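TOKENISE THE FOLD
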Amino acid sequence: MHKLVMLVSFLVVGTLLIVLFTSNKGKITKIDVETLQNRLENEDITLIDVREVGEYEGGHIEGAVNAPLSSLNATELPHVKDEPIYIICRSGNRSAQAAQILSDRGYTEVYDVTGGMIAWEQK
């Protein structure tokens, strides 16, 4: 019985250590377009539009910086890693991917805008 308790204890501690060391240090928070609009109106935020250049040029949120997802892996963004960064795309798929990339790179406060520009244009 003592060996079983020791084995279970070892497994629990080992699992906790694995989770602790492999968990994401950055945090990705999903927000809706109404929250984004409120923050744009009341705060100075960094908004990254990860759509391709042609999509961005076809219309974007004022103040958004274009950094296409297709080149994000090879590009280091010139933004401070411990300040909030907001990510938007057309529908929310590419922004989720970009948010994960940035979180993996050490950005600690990443906001993924759900619904993307489609939701923005419908609000």
Observations:
- The longest strand covers residues 27-31.
- The chain has six helices and five strands.
- The two ends are 62 Å apart (CA to CA).
- The longest helix spans residues 2-22.
